[in-house]
Structure formats: structure tokens, C-alpha cells
């Protein structure tokens, strides 16, 4: 199962790839530091960093397969975990609750996967 992403970690990778590219630009006689896959990754990270509004503040990008769990954890954090051990909380359709919550989030594509972050 794909994991959630932290934009601070993605920023570190973006800076690493940019530094590799810059090193080659400073000395064109050297072999290119980035292969085709790294060039693609760099372009994707640059695009994503421009799209995510809170990129520099450490936004969590929630993978679509984790969103239902995220919705339940958010509800537990708001209401207190003890409230979720009994009725009516044990009867909630979390898939439906997660789908309703998604309207407050923006979707982002990264490496062919869909992620959600607060709008």
C-alpha cells in the first residue's frame, strides 16, 4: 500500500536533484548527473511543489488508499477516541464519511498516484 507523503521530504529530494543538475550545468564536460528517470522525477516534483499551497510548511499528502483511515482518525481526534467504541460511532459508514470529507481536499497526482491535501 502506498504511503502518505510529507512535502518536507519531497522538498529535500527536489533540492538534491536540482543540485545534481546544477553541478552538471557548471561543468558541461562531465557526464549528465541525472538519468531519464531522475529528470522525470525532478519535473514531477517541480510541478507538484508549485501546485501544493502549503508545500514549504510540511503538508501531508494523503494517498487515496489511506483516505478512509485518515477520515476515521480525524474524527477520533476531534471527538476523542473513547467516543468511537460504542454506538452510534460503531455504525458509521467510513467509506461514505471519507468521500464526503474529500470535498474539503484538493487532489494531486504524483508518480501516477492520487494524493489529497487540505484545500
Description:
The protein is α+β, with helices and mostly antiparallel strands and 119 residues long. The chain has one domain. Helix content is 48%, strand content 15%. It has four helices and four strands, in the order βααβααββ. It has helices spanning 7-26, 36-51, 67-79, 94-101; strands spanning 5-6, 60-63, 105-110, 113-118. It has a four-stranded antiparallel beta sheet. Strand 3 (105-110) and strand 4 form a beta hairpin. Helix 1 packs across helix 2 (36-51). The longest helix has 20 residues, at 7-26. The chain is elongated and about 70 Å long. The relative contact order is 0.17.
Overall residue-averaged pLDDT value? 88
**Strand fraction:** 15-25%
The secondary structure category is alpha+beta
Q: Can you count the helices? A: 4
Characterize the main sheet.
Answer: 4 strands, antiparallel
- Strand arrangement within the widest β-sheet reads 1-2-4-3
Helix and strand string, N-terminal first? EHHEHHEE
Number of strand elements: 4
Which shape, going by the Cα principal axes? elongated
Kindly provide the radius of gyration, computed on alpha-carbon positions and rounded to a whole number of angstroms. Answer: 19 Å
Amino acid at each position: 500500500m502506498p504511503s502518505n507523503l510529507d512535502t518536507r521530504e519531497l522538498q529535500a529530494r527536489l533540492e538534491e536533484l536540482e543540485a545534481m543538475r546544477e553541478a552538471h550545468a557548471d561543468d558541461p564536460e562531465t557526464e549528465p548527473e541525472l538519468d531519464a528517470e531522475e529528470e522525470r522525477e525532478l519535473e514531477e516534483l517541480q510541478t507538484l511543489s508549485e501546485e501544493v499551497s502549503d508545500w514549504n510548511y510540511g503538508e501531508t499528502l494523503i494517498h487515496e488508499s489511506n483516505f478512509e483511515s485518515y477520515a476515521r482518525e480525524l474524527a477520533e481526534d476531534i471527538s476523542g477516541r473513547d467516543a468511537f467504541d460504542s454506538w452510534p460511532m460503531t455504525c458509521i459508514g467510513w467509506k461514505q464519511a471519507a468521500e464526503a470529507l474529500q470535498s474539503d481536499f484538493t487532489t494531486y497526482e504524483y508518480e501516477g498516484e492520487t494524493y489529497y491535501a487540505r484545500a
